[in-house]
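Quick review question:
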């Protein structure tokens, strides 16, 4: 856990698990297992919820409680995003300005805006307070900082995979066979699970460094 390269083993495990899932099951089964409301996505959401609570376990009295609370809010937001609560609540995405200009009630719009602003405020606080320290820690190969940088890189990769098929089909008019859609889905969902695993790893590393 104290190795600066532990995060890369997590990412490698997820990549191998994705490839193994794709090879072991027919494409339709991969889409069912790895797709929306599938067991892997539910496990990802549960792990994010666990991370939101574990942050308070990993941090000590010397840690800034505002940062602890902000990190917990962000993890809860990741959990709700995995469960598509924003779509159940709004029917679309709270990030779409068109929804706020639509026929939804004022109360719903205010509630959605309040939640969104709270999450953005938490993210902004974490970036302003800790981005430089994480960058310096990454350059110094401190385990938790390396894990957080691996988290960011994996997040970008997962979101790129999420949009890849839509871009190929919508922008280039290329029909993507189900077998390749299944490969994309397997890697995307395993990497998203890996994100929550990386957060948990970072918390364990932080606690280990704090109690050393």
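Suggested answer, residue by residue:
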């Amino acid at each position: 856990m104290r190795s600066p390269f532990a995060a890369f083993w997590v990412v490698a495990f997820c990549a191998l698990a994705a490839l193994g899932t794709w090879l072991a099951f027919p494409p339709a089964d991969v889409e069912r297992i790895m797709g929306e409301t599938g067991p892997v996505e539910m496990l990802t959401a549960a792990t994010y919820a666990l991370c939101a609570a574990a942050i308070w376990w990993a941090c000590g009295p010397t840690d800034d409680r505002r940062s602890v609370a902000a990190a917990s809010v962000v993890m809860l937001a990741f959990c709700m995003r995995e469960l598509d609560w924003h779509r159940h609540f709004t029917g679309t995405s709270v990030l779409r300005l068109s929804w706020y200009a639509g026929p939804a009630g004022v109360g719903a719009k205010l509630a959605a805006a309040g939640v969104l602003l709270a999450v953005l405020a938490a993210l902004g606080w974490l970036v302003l307070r800790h981005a430089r320290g994480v960058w310096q820690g990454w350059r110094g190969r401190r385990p938790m900082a390396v894990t957080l940088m691996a988290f960011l890189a994996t997040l970008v990769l997962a979101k790129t995979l999420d949009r890849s098929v839509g871009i190929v089909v919508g922008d280039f008019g290329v029909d993507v066979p189900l077998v390749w859609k299944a490969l994309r889905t397997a890697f995307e969902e395993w990497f998203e699970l890996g994100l929550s695993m990386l957060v948990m790893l970072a918390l364990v590393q932080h606690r280990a460094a704090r109690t050393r």
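Why it works: Residues 165 and 171 are 10 Å apart (CA to CA). Residues 6-211 form one domain.
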